[in-house]
Structure formats: structure tokens, C-alpha cells
Write a structure and sequence with these properties.
PIGN_N, single chain, transmembrane helix, transmembrane, GPI_EtnP_transferase_1_C, 7% strand, eight-stranded mixed beta sheet
Length: 666
Amino acid sequence: IPVFILAGLLVHCVFLVSIFEIYFSSPLVHGMTPQQTPLPPPAKRLVLFVADGLRADALYELNSNGTPQAPYLRGILENNGSWGISHTRVPTESRPGHVALIAGFYEDVSAVAKGWKENPVEFDSVFNETKYTWSWGSPDILPMFAKGATGDHVYTFCYTAESEDFGAQDAAKLDTWVFDHVKSFFNYSRSNQTLLSALNEDKVVLFLHLLGIDTNGHAHRPNSREYKENIKKVDEGVQEIASMIENFYGNDGKTAFILTSDHGMTDWGSHGAGHPSETLTPLIVWGAGVNYPQKVTSQFFEDNFLKEWKLEHLKRLDVNQADIAPLMASLIGVPFPLNSVGTLPLEYLNNSAHFKAESIFTNAVQILEQFKVKMSQKKETTLSLLFTPFKPLSDSEQINFLKQTRLYIQQQKYDEAVSLCKALINLALEGLSYYHTYDRLFLGLSIAMGFVGWTTYVILVIIKTHTNLTKTVQTNNKESTVLFYSFAFVGIAIAFFLLIQTCPWTYYIYCLLPVPVWYAVMRELPVIQDLATNLLSLHVYQSIGFLLVCTLGIEILVFSFFYRSTLTVGLLVFAGWPVVTQLWIQAKTTTSIWTFLCVLLAIFPLMPVVGREPSIPLVIATGLLTLLISCFSLAFLCKSKNKYRNNEDLKVHFCQVSCYFSVILN
């Protein structure tokens, strides 16, 4: 038994780790050449405001009296700039959101093991490509971009971690701190010639991370007075900073501004999942090189936001969150981040058709570089006979795309060049995904075989030790030896196959695991034969009914992942089970309690997943009540003289109650 338990723990640890290897491996590659638009950029500097936790509807919607929530920003999108919705991706957390905004790719999911704090793999960003970047805000966000930068040109100014109090009465002070320190910074630069010279360089970014809205959202909910007041303070602060910077540079018209958010927030103050309130964030862009508001008579979106926000007459330009990084790079003329998968949103640019064509061409080449590196890496670790390339983007197709696009630009056929570049970007992104998931089916099948084998073995062991369905059979040593050497040969063949492909060491674990597991299953072949004999002796209708019930139960569990209410159906079936099987005649009290508890439990899947207000006393009371019922049941079993009572079962019940008690204490 101890060996069996240790083997089970080991196998399940492998299954758990395999999830990260198959689905959570890093998408990043290195070795690409930086790509930069060859034409002069429209802006010398860019100011990026990120209002952490700001929902799109919270900024764009009007108050009940018809006034805007953020008057200054509303005026910008109506008179001076372009606007839209930035669509984020799960997980809607601060670090993944900022990585998408500034580095242009959707978070390296292996960062989940670091709590979304550290950089498990170094990556390039817009900040890294600038001449200077100054940033102010949270110590949870700013350092990761300074840490990943080459050279000493990304400067951070953070408040203390203790200041991020989610229960603070006025979390807007976090944003006030940022605005005040930016003002002090510019005032100080007037007396510091070195700093003043640096500020007047090209390719400069000023990043203001505003955490107050997110903090107030967590503490008071997005519909609270505190959350809305914080939006007003951010609006006023953005107005002051924008005016101050314009004056500082003598209104030279060379400053671009972007305001957006890393993620939204649910009505109950949480984020991380994929609800629209979490994934829809505002995007307002204005200043140098940015299009003015575009008046339209009609535009179609599946949602009704335009009507709700009274913005039907202004063109809404939606983007993916990763598209903002190439937009920033294009505006100030820095190389696109090497790992960016964003597509440059050309409709935001107010520049010549030539500039737009060159910019999107640079964007396409930059993503194609990643594709080529990814393909090369996969080709090196796969046998040439087994390697299946991404056919839509073969070497010849790549050359044709690049030559034709360059020809269109030379012939001033800019619209055709843009269309071709967008097609190339889409194919390159598909190819990146293809090579990133190249081994997923192979590894998935290996893990599935191991899982099915282990499940089969556990069932056979239970049947063998806890039922009388099988009889003891003398083991044939000769057959056991042949079986052992057969599986050993299979294992050696798999290991050799992985070795010649220079696969990672983890692949050996995932691919070799099914070998000993299925060897153990095949050693129980007599048990399988006895079980099959017993099943075949049953009536056909009984067998079919049993299989149908099992299938229905499994389908209900699967559907419950998508529709929680299906659990109610299953629990109601359980409630009626004693009546159908006539068990209620033998033990009316027990079956009545069973039916009542099943019906009571069936109510919960129909209730909301998360409430707006936490109820800690209710949670504690529920835990204590469950513990009380468990203790009562255990005491009742100990005192009963039922001939079917098993002392081993009592030990298991006692261990379960002890574990539950420790959970409540924690």
C-alpha cells in the first residue's frame, strides 16, 4: 500500500506539472533583429497614462444629469483625438495588462508561477527601445520594465508598497502622489542642465501608472462614490500634466498622449477573468501624429455602448491591447518591441499614406522575424522526415510577400501595400501559434495515455482488493518475463526517439510514464478477464442501463463546467434515487435525510457565483455546521453495532474530519 500511494503521488505530480509544459510554456523567442520605420516620426516624446482598473463604461458613460464623468478626456475625444475600446485578454491582472500594453505580447503565462511579479523570461519593450523613459507609480509594476531594459535609461519613481492599502479611505492619494512628483520632476529639471537636455531628446517616454482607481474599486466597488470621484481626480490630473508638458516644451506640437487601462473590474470589485467589464478598457489618443475625431453617420458594433455613451457620431476605433505597443513605437520612431504580436492600428495615425505603409511593413517584418526564429528552433529539434512546416508561409511565400509589398510602396500603391502587410501579419501570427503548439498533440496524447492507464490500474486494484468479482490466479513467470522485456523495449525505443530529436528532459518523463503504468495494467490481465466474464453474465438490459447512467453522470459533470444549473439536475436525480431503487422502504429515516439534503444542495448551483458583499460570518458558520454534522455522523457510526461497519472506513472518516477541521482553522 505505501508503494502504491507513493506511486500515485508521483504520477499525479507529473500530471500537474505537464499542464504548465503543454499549455503554459513561454511563447517568447530571442534572436530577432530590431525593426524600425525608416521615415521620421511625428512625435519626439510620448506620455502614457495607465489608469489601473478603469472600466471603459466607467469613463465614457454620462452621469444621470447628462454631464461626463471625465470632462477633460471627453472633450479630447470629441475635439482633439481618437478613441475606442482596448480589448484585453485573460488573465485580466495588472502585470499581464502592462506587458501587453508596453511589450506588445500577451503575458508569458509561465509568470503565473511567480505571482505575476517577476520576469521568468526577459523580454523587449517600448521602454527598452527609447532613449529615455521616466516612470512614476506602483512598485509592483514599474521595476519589471526597468529590470528588463538594456542599459541605464529607464528610470522609476515609486511610492512604498505599504501605501497600497486596499482598505484606505482615500486611495486617490496614490494618483495625487504621481501627479505631484511629475510636477516636481519638471520643476527640478529647470535647474538641472543634464536632466533638461535629456528631456529635450527624441524618443522619450513619460509613463504615469495610476493605481488609485483600481484600489478604490477593490475597496468600495466600481459603482461607488469613491471610484467615480477617483476618475474625476484622474481626469483633472491628466489635464494638469498635459498642459504643463505642453507649456514646458513651448507647445511645439511634438508630444503624443495616450490614456488607457490595463484591465477593468467586475461590479463586485474583482478582476482576473474574462467578463466584458474586465476585458473592455478605454483608449484615448491625442497629440502629435494622431488623427482628429472622425465624424460618422452610422457605425455597427454588436454592443449598444455607442448609444449608451452618446458617442454614435464619433468613429470608434477598437484595438487589441497588444496593438498599443506598436502604436507607441510608430509615434516616436523607436524599433517595434522584438516580441510584440500587436498590429499597428493605422486609423489612429494622422500621417502620410507613405508613412503608414512603411510603418505597417516594419510591423509585418518584425512579426515575421519571430516566426522565422520559432520555425528554425522547431526544425532543429525535429527529425527532417517528421517535420511538418507551416505551408501557407513557406520560404518562397515569405520572399514573395516582402518583394511585392516593397514594389507596391515604390510604385506608391500604398493601399495595396497595407492590405498585403496585414495579410502577412495574420499568417505570421497563425504560424507562430502553429509552432508554439507544435508538440501539444504529441505531449497531450502521452499524458492522456498515462492518465487512462493509471485510472485503469487504480480501478483494477480496487476491484481486486475490495470485491469478490475476481479469483486468485497463479502468476505465470514466463509470461511475466516476456511482458517485462516487451515494455522495456518500448521504453528504450521511445527514449531513443526523443534523444535523436534533442527533446527537453521533461519530454522523457511525459512520454515514458505510460510505459510502466500500462505494464502494471497488463500484469492485472487475469483481473480484467474475470471482470469481463462477470459483466457478460449480466442481462443485456442491465448492462445497457448501467452504461447509460454512467454516461449521463459524466455528461452532467462536463456540462456543469459551462452551465452550473446542470448540477441541479444531477442532485435532483440523486434525491430521487432511493425512491426508484426502493431503498426508502428499508431505511425511511436515512433516505428522507438523504433526499432533503440533496434537494437543499441542488439550490446552490442556481445562485449567483459571486455576491457583491463578502459575508465572512456566513462562511465560518457554514464550515462549523459542516464540521458539527461530520462529528455527529462519526460518533453515530462509532456507537452503532451495524454488521457492515468497517473499522478501516472509520479511520478514513476520522482523517477526513481532521483535515476539514485544520482547513477551518487556517
